User: Fold these one by one.
Assistant:
Number 1:
Amino acid sequence: MATNEPAGDGHRDGAVRRRSQTQTPSGNWVKRNTETGRFMDVKSSPKPFKGVRREK
C-alpha cells in the first residue's frame, strides 16, 4: 500500500532552481535570480528562505 506524505506539511523535495539568497548588512535575507542577478524578494524574518541555496 502506498504511503503518500501529507500535503502542505511545509517541506520541499530538492532545492528551488535558479535562485540564491544572501544576508544583507541589516540581517534580512534577500532572494536573487541567478540568471539575471536581480534581487527578487526580501524577507523581514531573521530566518532564511526555505529550500534556496546560500551565496558565499
Number 2:
Amino acid sequence: MMSKSGNKKDKTGTPQWDLRSSFSTDHSSLKKARVLVVGDVMLDRYWFGEVNRISPEAPVPVVKFGHCEERPGGAANVARNVAALGARVTLLSVVGRDEAGKSLESLLRNEKVVARLHRDSTIDTTVKLRVIGPRKHQLLRIDFETVPSHEILRSKLADYAKLVTACDVVILSDYGKGGLAHIARMIALARRHGKPVLVDPKGGDFARYRGATLITPNLAEFREVAGVWKNERELTERAQALRKQVKVDALLVTRGAGGMTLFQSGDRLHVPAQAREVSDVSGAGDTVIAALAVVLAAGGSLPDAVRVANRAAGIVVAKFGTAVATPEEVFGTNEG
C-alpha cells in the first residue's frame, strides 16, 4: 500500500521508495540547475602496463609501462559529475602552481566545469597515482599531497561569499586535505542565503558539519562516528541520534551493495541497490552527492534525489576508475 508521500513498506515495516515513480524531467530543468562545489581537488593518474615477471630485487611485479590516463578527482570529480548530468557547475578549490594543477584545470575546462582554482606556490597539487596491471587490476597507489596555506584559504572564502548567492545548491566535498578549513563559516553563510548545503564528510568529527542540510557518510564513515549496531532498528536509532546531535536536516548512509538509507526527522527511507556488475567503486560517493545536488537544484524532492543518486551510483560502479553518469543513462530507460 502506497503512502501519500509515495513510500511503501516492506515485510519488516521499513519504508522504501517506489522505484517506479521516477523523477520526471525533460532535461530543461537540469540545464537550469546551478551547483557550487567547494572542497579538496586532486588529479587521478592511471599508469597502465603489462606484467610478465616478478622483480629479482624484491617479490613485486615488474610493470612494463604502456600508457597513461588522467581524470579529475576528489571535489573535481564531483563537479565533473554535476556537469555530466547537464547542470551548470562552479568549482572553488586550491591547487599548486605546478604541472598537475595545469593539467587538472585543462581537464575541467573540457568537462564544462567553471573552475575557480586558487594557486598556492607553497604546495603541490594533490595527485593519486594508480599503477594498473592486466585486466585493470590495481597494483599500487601513490599519493602526493600537502595542505594549502591559510592566506590562500582566506582568499577562497572571500570568493565563496560571492559565488554562494548565485547558486541553487552547495556541495562541500571533504577529503581531509585541508581545503575546507572554514567549513563552519561556509555552511552558515549558505544557510543564511537559503541555500541547501550537502556535505560529503571525512574523519570522525561530524560536529564540524553542524547546520548542514544533508551529510552523506558511507558505512565505514558512519560506523566510525556512530559505533556498531546489531540490526536495522539500532542502525536507525544511531542515525537519528547522530542527525539530531549534529543538527542536520537529513542523513544519507550509502551502503554499497546494500543500497542507501535516508534519515529525516521521524522518517526513514531505504532504496535498494540496483544489481550491476561492479568494476570500480572509486568515486561512487562523488556521483551520489552530485546527483543529489542536481535533482534538488532542479526542483526535485529529497526522496527523488536519493532515488536518482542510487541509480547514478549503480551506473558508475560498472565503469573503470572515477567516472560519470549521463542524463541518458540515468533517465533514458524505464525502471519497470
